[in-house]
Design goal:
CinA (chains A, B), Molybdopterin-binding protein (chains A, B), alpha/beta, homodimer, MoaB/Mog_dom (chains A, B), FLAD1_M (chains A, B), 9 helices, 4-stranded antiparallel β-sheet
Chain lengths: 256, 256
């Protein structure tokens, strides 16, 4: 996104040993990327850290200083390995205590005998935190300043975004157009693509090859060319010109 | 992994605008996590950055100083947006030039008319770089000091690991055992799990709830408890004791 105009920027912080051990495949980063793109909020970087307070604090402080928004996922459940609320409190230098509204939500959700000390932990929020509604399982996330703290379970994280979206200032969304070139590798289109990129410095041009399966036929190899920018007519014009340049060079463009 | 003994540590750096835009779902981080775990190399953190030299250099320099190994994926193809070799050169403060062996590999791979300037770019390696074989599509990766620079295409990245594995010093692998608890949420097992974790401070205990689909039956909710450690008998003993504690509390353990 180096060549796109300024817009609010964001970072994602995925928290959890299970991602780093390989046990769980993260999907939250992609969900957040797809959530932010149409809002015109530029996702600039993402990090994955383990269930360690020092790591979470260091990453959070670096990211919240560098970006307009930080979205964290993971570590807000009832078990001893859920340390995100404390880590966020430590990062901001504020105490963490039971949030009355969060407590009320949880009390309503559980039968009296079920609402034990472990589940009460999910009401703990750093000072100044504003709750993020969890319509799936009750236990809320929370926002502290520019940091949105959400669940790690993908279904819950995704549901929380409904409550997050209205709180974000938005930017001009990035438009993209793709061209699917087949029958040649990306090396065959590189010069044409570079010239197109140099001609339109406000746009971003990417090339993503495909067809590396074991015994592919030459017809099945190719590359996806992606043009991105904030000005839709300019992106459309770039696609039109690039298509023409590729066809002039005898390169086949497949329907997408 | 906070509670596991020292071992070589590693970080992953995923490079590419397409991951941050949400267009592409990264799978390389998980592949690397699963590759490193049995070698006893602890993956401590991962980062995703865009195709921007300043971002790549900053992340790479932070990660290579903090860990025994860094594995990067993406940005080593023939197009103008492939800037990883230059960024790695800049991070190490060394020039980048055509590597004779890489050039020979590429010359053999392409017909004379096909081996154009763009494809020659894939022979560019920072000074001191040692090639990493690419049995899928020829164009090699490279190792500079403790940094392994690999392709972004998952099939190629995975194939490169065969050449990377023998270069790593290994540690004692982490063993893990899982217990699948059903019919109750993780809040119901939190106290038992915490006591188990406190009794065995050298092990790591995680809890990962499931069953948050739209209209689940209570019997389909539950949590996966994961015990991890370097001492297999200790992990086995912990699983045995935790199972007994859960059963004593009337909690059902499903076959895994």
């Amino acid at each position: 996104m180096s060549k796109l105009s300024p817009s609010p920027t964001a970072a994602v912080l995925i928290i959890g040993d299970e991602i780093l051990s390989g046990r769980t495949r993260d999907s939250n980063m992609n969900t957040l990327a797809r959530f932010l793109a149409p809002l015109g909020v530029d996702l600039m970087e993402a990090r994955v850290v383990g269930d360690r307070q020092d790591q979470i604090v260091a990453a959070l402080n670096a990211l919240r200083a560098a970006h307009d928004y930080v979205f964290t996922t993971g570590g807000i459940g009832p078990t001893h390995d859920d340390i995100t609320a404390d880590a966020v409190g430590a990062a901001f230098g504020v105490p963490v205590s039971e949030h009355p509204e969060a407590l009320a939500i949880l009390e309503r959700r559980y039968a009296p005998g079920e609402f034990n000390a472990a589940r009460r932990r999910m009401a703990r929020v750093p000072e100044g935190g504003v709750l993020i509604a969890n319509p799936v399982s009750g236990a809320p996330g929370f926002q502290v300043d520019n940091v949105f703290v959400m669940a790690g379970v993908p279904k819950i994280m995704e549901a929380m975004l409904d409550d997050v979206a209205p709180r974000l200032k938005t930017g001009s969304p990035v438009h993209s157009r793709s061209l699917r070139v087949t029958g040649v590798g990306e090396g065959a289109v590189a010069d044409i693509l570079r010239a197109a990129a140099e001609a339109r410095p406000h746009l971003s041009f990417g090339s993503y090859p495909f067809g590396f399966s074991g015994d592919h036929k030459p017809s099945e190899i190719g590359t996806q060319l992606v043009i991105r920018g904030r000005n839709q007519p300019e992106v459309d014009a770039a696609e039109h010109d690039l298509s023409a340049d590729l066809r002039s060079a005898g390169i086949e463009i497949a329907p997408t």
